[in-house]
Amino acid sequence: MKKLVYVAGSGHSGTTMLGLILAQHSKLVGLGEILQALQVTSEHSAFDEIRKRETPCSCGNTLDHCVFWAKVDAALKENKKGEYFERLQVVLQTIEELYGKDRRGVDTSKSLVPIGKMLQNGMEVKVIHLIRDVRAYSISYVDRSRVRRSRGLPVSRKKKGWLSEALMKHSAYYFLDWYSQNRKIQTFLRANAVPTFQVGYEELCLYPSLMIEKICGFLEIPVEPGMLSLEGSSQSHIIRGNRMRYRSEKKQIRYDNRWFYRPDWVLPSILFPHVMRFNRREVYKNTAGVLWEEKG
Questions:
Q1: Which fold, 3-133+182-256?
Q2: What is the pLDDT of residues 209-242, one digit of tens each?
Q3: Domain spans of the chain?
Q4: Diameter of the chain measured on Cα atoms
């Protein structure tokens, strides 16, 4: 049975960074957001767009020169696989052919949709739920909203009404959106008894060695030296995901601390105390008290 490591979470939560860290392990292959990479419409596939834009893979090559995705693309064209799960099987088969049957792919697609399809087809999947502090999350999206508006673009790529577009200027909108998304992920994973390890983005940045040890324990693989050195050699073939995947100067564990000096999150934190309680409980559950234990 083919196996996969799946990173679930909301957007702007550090999933690409986690994917790059895991790709340093000799038993794992980082593949980025497979769901987006395998998208097909009636007219073209995601590969056509990637090829047109000459978007580089994290291995440093364009799609046609990437040893992994070029092989996947050729196999998909030859067999004309249409359904998502069938296309995913081609990806997993390519991992076996290039790297051996003991390797597992790391998919950072975040969405619950692929997990449901995997479970329906009896596939073995382990999920890492990455959850970011709501204050950092909301600031990240507020800034994204401003950038898109400055370019004359709608705030969301999905079709939304004028009221939603107006609300998406404010942190309060993202507080509730963050809470809803992460509760939904937790509920789905528990209801389907999916093996899951939940980790905070802040925990990963502040206690990287400890969290990597815990993640490797969950995946039942040994910790390997160099997993924190994102500049080292790895089997990483990410063609869809955060831009840091191919910017060498940003391939490092660096905490986004904009919320430290921005007040945008203060009012929603007062308005939604239940969100802040959830944030304190769920984002820092692995490291609560660690600092004091070390000093003691």
A1: Rossmann fold (3.40.50)
A2: 999 999 999 999 999 988 887 665 567 888 886 6
A3: 3-133+182-256
A4: 62
